[in-house]
Amino acid sequence: MPQHSPDLPPELLPLAQMPLLKRLAARFFGHGLNRLRAQHRASWLHGQADGFRSGHNAGVEYGYEEGRREGLEEGRQVLLIRDSRNTEHRPPGVDDRLFDDWRLPLSAELKKRFKADVARLLAPQAQPSAAQWKMIFSDTPATAVIAGAGAGKSTSLVLRLLLLSHYLGFELDSMTVVTFTRESRKDFINKLLQVFALWGRVLSPREARELVRTFHSRILPMVRSLPGFERLQAFENLSERAPSADEEVDSNPFDLRINDAQRQHLNACYQALYRSDERFRQALQPLLRHALQLKELERDHPDVQKRVAVTELAAKRDEELCDMVEDLWFRAGAWPIKGIEPQRQSFEINGAQFHCHGYAPELDAWVMLGFDPRENPQASRPGAKLSVRAEWAVKRTLFQAFCRKPLIWLDSYDASKRASGAFSATPSGGPGFDYKVKGELASAPLLDCFVAAAGFIENLGLDVGDAVAGMSFAADDPDRHFFEALSLFWRALEDHLLDQSPPIMSYNRMFALFSERSPENLKLLSDACLRPLSHLMIDEFQDVSPQIVSWLKACLKEIRSRSSALHLGRGAQHSSLLCVGDDWQSIYGWRGSSPKYFIDFNKEFPSPGTTRVMLGENYRSHQHVIDAAEHIVRAVPAIPGKKAKAVGEPRQLWPVQVLDRDDQDLAQRLAEHYGQGDSILMLFRKSSDKFLIEEHISQIVNVDSRLPPAARRLKLLTYHSAKGLQADVVFLLGDCQHLGGSPYKNQLYRQAGLGKDGDTDAYDNAQKDEALRLAYVGITRAVRHCYWYVERQENMPGNAPKASDRVPRDKPYFEDLRQGQ
Fold first, then answer.
1. Which has the closest alpha carbon to 766: 606, 617, 591, 645?
2. From CA 617, how far away is CA 614, in angstroms rounded?
3. Can you spell out the DSSP letters for 333-392?
4. What is the pLDDT of residues 452-484, one digit of tens each?
5. 3-state secondary structure string, 479-523?
6. Quick one: three-class SS letters along 511-535?
7. Sheet arrangement for strand 535-538
8. Which of 254, 287, 590 is nearest to 441 (CA)?
9. Which of the residues 217, 380, 622, 685 could staple to 734 if both were Cys, CB 3.0 to 4.6 A apart?
10. Could you tell me the CA-to-CA distances from 809 to 657, 662, 787, 818 in Å, in that order?
11. Do 610 and 602 contact (CB within 8 A), yes or no?
């Protein structure tokens, strides 16, 4: 008989192995049931089945454990297994690329056919170079084209469009070419219509305008597609006259001028906020006091030294002078002023007693009435040798040097009216006054300052309120109150504009609504709204702002997420991005743009494949102009490997001449070139320089202005507005340098992640680089001659580095004719 293991559970033991008492009871009970024939067959069968299952399971478990122990023991004698798997939980990676992994379907036969058509239909001088063909035939989802000045990029972009639409069958409504300004858009549309016509593709002007856009004209239809915003107006496009259909969705991103229609909304919001918000009023008070407060003069200033000798004499006549000025203000209806107590207060100035006219309790400052410029400048007191105006100038200088009390000096009747709202504790209207934020070149009306600062913040991709909350200032810095007031005003302005019928919104607000900060809003857009962004070609990409970059990335992510649903049944599948630019021509950092996104293109726009094209041919200038411009800008961080080469017919080389500022000499040279039939660009840094030069060349200006626009050969422009233009001869008036620093823009640059880590002056350092790039832009406008007139060293403000400092004396492409150089 088999031996049963003592490990079996008690319920499976044979009857013989059960305890004695249980064994006797079981037998007795079993015999009784048999005799009574009381056994229930169904119960017996059910119990038999249960017993079988229970026994089977128990047996299997017992056998498995017994066999497993024996097997493990034998296995240890043969192989020792170690589990090397990583026990840490690792989720799947994130695919953050903006494009699918695909390639443009370009066969060798198609390329050959397209090249043959281009050779047959385009003029010999318009035939693409090898580098331009590389750009046209790029088959990767992302393409960066580094195109220096005069590189002939426009024709290459048009041929790229022709390839996609005519040869590959991509629908025009799946493509957008982006230019930065209205002017460049018009030029590109004309070239597009001409080239497409050569291939028998007749585009209507409307089709071309739909294809070639500015960023602004692409974002507006997006917002208007949302319920309730069908008639939305852009704040930047508001005008007293009704704009044309084309103008209505277009705007120059670098135009900072505020027109009357826009100013009406700014003023209405300002006045309403001033009446309703105590915090806003409190923030304005120190701004007004700072703006109107008499600015100090150093005691060794020449004006002070000249007038301090007459202190005693001026003090003896001061009360009479105060009386006369007060009478003038009273007759003009400008005095007394609500909120100013008309009480005389004496001051000791350089040991003598002088007087002011009143006290403003709300501003805790004394008030002095000035001599209004509209009054007769020859007016004088009886028996006085000096005019009232001259006497007042003496007093003003003495107060600037020796008065240390808070003193508001109202220079004119108009100034007092604009500021009057802040003198009264009862808010009736907000004060109007000029203000100068630290780092800006000049003061401007307060609301203009608000618009400029908010525009810079939003161009950096920041929210105004959040950005202000992240800034810090010294307790006595009036800019602290400026930015607090800005934060309150900007929120109120956005609400005010949306409350209009139809609603109004700024372009920056529109881009923010569809940026990476608000990806959910993109889900609200139809496929038809997003489809034109599937194949994007962007010109002048070096001037793109963080705000625009965020919008582009958000749109590309949304397009990819919709995948085949967006492209179903269409020739244009997937999406692509082709950007053309020259980081050496990035000159709009003062508005928030940055070349960083072009320099770091691969990192900013991750793709399964990226093509990099270097268009190094220059079809505009001779080699000396090219080398001179590149020498100036070579010191700035840039895309590596850039070196332009003049192509075309060999031309005579003239060095870029650098001369001391001499307006008469400039006018003479300009007249000689104009007489020879040359086209001329006269570029200046300051508007005041334009007026000075126009006086010297007025005869030529008058002659040229009477010609039809196409025949005019003289243009007077700023360095910035000349980008994209060219002329036989270029006159540059003024050096390029970054004057002063901007504490608030440095802070915002850090918030936006621009600049190097740990650089506390990131914006200022970027502007020093931009000054060199601006000189590069100016020089590269020249086809043959470039004359650069710069101020003498002793007349230059500050010690900031200048672009002309980089002019070498031992290079053939520069001729430095400055005295003492």
1. 591
2. 9
3. T--S-TT-B---EEEEETTEEEEESEEETTTTEEEEE---TTS-TT---TT-SS-HHHHH
4. 999 999 999 999 999 999 999 999 999 999 999
5. HHHHHHHHHHHHHHHHHHHHCCCCCEECHHHHHHHCCCCCHHHHC
6. HHHCCCCCHHHHCCCCHHHHHHHCE
7. 212-213, 175-178, 535-538, 576-581, 142-147, 610-615
8. 590
9. 685
10. 11, 21, 16, 11
11. yes
User: Would you say residue 42 has pLDDT above 60?
Assistant: no
Give the mean pLDDT of the chain.
Answer: 88
Question: CA–CA separation, 524 vs 562, rounded Å?
Answer: 12
Q: How confident is the model at residue 419 (pLDDT cuts 50, 70, 90)?
A: confident
Q: Which domains does the chain have, with CATH numbers?
A: 1-42 (no CATH), 108-170+180-213+533-615 (3.40.50.300), 294-405 (no CATH), 623-816 (3.40.50.300)
Give the integer Cα–Cα distance in Å for 813 and 800.
Answer: 25
Could you tell me if 598 and 549 are in contact, meaning their C-beta atoms sit under 8 angstroms apart? no
Rounded CA-CA distance 235/259 in Å is: 10
d(CA 288, CA 436): 11
Task: Report the Cα–Cα distance between both ends of the chain, in Å, rounded.
Answer: 122
Is the preceding omega at residue 336 within 30 degrees of 0, hence cis? yes
**β-pair partners for 716:** 682
The neighbouring-strand residues paired with 659 are: 789
pTM flag (> 0.85): no
CA R_g for the chain: 40
Which residues, other chains included, contact 572 with Cβ-Cβ below 8 Å and sequence gap of 6+? 164, 170, 171, 174, 175, 534, 535
Distance between alpha carbon 811 and the CA centroid of its chain, in Å? 37
Please report, for residues 20, 23, 299, 652, 714, the alpha-carbon distance to residue 732 in angstroms, rounded to integers and kept in the order given: 123, 122, 38, 21, 13
SS percent in the chain: helix, strand, coil, step 5: 50, 10, 40
The answer to whether 538 and 580 are in contact (CB under 8 A) is: yes
Predicted local distance difference test score (pLDDT) of residue 646: 96
Positive or negative CA dihedral for 345, 349, 353, 355?
negative
Strands (DSSP E) along 515-673, which ranges? Answer: 535-538, 576-581, 610-615, 617-618, 645-646, 656-660
Tokens 């024939």 correspond to 37
Tell me the three state secondary structure of residue 471.
coil
* 215: helix, strand or coil: helix
7: Cβ contacts below 8 Å, ≥ 6 apart: 62
Q: What tokens were used for 6?
A: 């003592």
State the Cα–Cα distance between residues 586 and 390, nearest whole angstrom: 48
